[in-house]
Specification:
The chain is α/β, with parallel strands linked by helices. The chain contains eleven helices and 13 strands.
Length: about 300
């Protein structure tokens, strides 16, 4: 497979039309069609369903799309790294992170670096720990900001200042909103909106299993979320109470939402991590040096 042909395939998948993709790629339609047919022949799989008005992907095509996106991302990242070798004050830095107020510490370092090196560009990928570590392991990210506790055996790390506090987002007119703190007893019989980190698969790492104890299996999980913005919308719609970290949702006087901390208190620290023995681009190496000066050596 050639990178060029993978880019052609992704363009067709994105546009849903060979004609539109050919125009975008500045190719003739017959040339693009032939390239895609050759790709299907090379892989021995049908990748596209050619409808009357729109092209869709077969299950095999969907698999290739995911892999092709990863391959093209890696090629572009590699090209960027070698380009930056020519001038160490330029380049791209890729950071994956969960939703956390502590990201402000990383953002402050980013700002300091860009003030000195305006040609350094940052690219932020938001996701949960599983999403971020998967991309770290594949080399698609230089750094990840992960909420503790997390298995750090494969990574070097720097702990960030402060800890995030867990609690629930509630409507201000709901029964729990009248409380200063929320206990386990308050949560066992109410509908909850849970993050992936709170799911059964990750609870032993996140600290939830210990906090909820034997009641964990009996929680009423009404909905789950990956991004807390969507969780806040569900809370506002009356679906349930969202279990999340503090300072991520607007709970000011102008909103209908409030945050109530858990009791006993449950906190999570954070680490910025990178793969052991990572070979950094010049820009990423400068960023790491600045992080280590700011937060101490790993």
């Amino acid at each position: 497979m050639e990178i060029r042909v993978l880019r052609y395939f992704l363009a067709v998948a994105r546009e849903g039309s060979i004609t539109a993709a050919a125009n975008t790629l500045h190719l003739t339609q017959p040339t693009l069609s032939r390239q895609l047919q050759d790709l299907e022949k090379e892989l021995g799989q049908k990748l596209l369903v050619r409808g009357k008005y729109k092209i869709s992907l077969t299950p095999e095509g969907m698999i290739l799309r995911k892999r092709a996106e990863e391959i093209v991302d890696m090629v572009e990242k590699t090209e960027s790294e070698f380009q930056s070798i020519k001038d160490i004050v330029s380049g791209d830095i890729y950071i994956g992170c969960g939703e956390t107020d502590s990201m402000k510490y990383v953002a402050n370092v980013m700002k300091e670096l860009q003030d000195e090196y305006p040609d350094i560009k940052f690219h932020i990928y938001s996701g949960n720990a599983e999403d971020v570590t998967e991309k770290l392991d594949k080399g698609l990210l230089d750094f990840g900001v992960l909420i503790q506790p997390i298995d750090l055996s494969k990574y070097d790390n720097l702990p960030l200042p402060d800890k995030d506090v867990w609690g629930v987002i509630a409507k201000k007119d709901s029964p729990l909103a009248q409380k200063d703190k929320v206990t386990l007893k308050d949560l066992v019989n109410v509908p909850l909106i849970a993050s992936r980190q709170m799911s059964k698969k990750y609870s032993s790492q996140s600290g939830f299993l210990d906090w909820f104890g034997k009641e964990f299996e009996h929680l009423n999980i009404a909905a789950t979320y990956n991004l807390v913005y969507n969780a806040a919308i569900m809370v506002n719609a009356g679906i349930g109470y969202a279990v999340t970290l503090d300072k991520l949702v607007n709970t000011s006087d102008t909103t209908n939402l409030c945050f109530i901390p858990l009791s006993p208190r449950l906190e999570s620290g954070l680490d910025i991590v990178w793969k052991k023995h990572q070979v950094f681009s010049p820009a990423a190496k400068i960023f790491l040096d600045r992080l280590q000066k700011k937060f101490g050596t790993a």
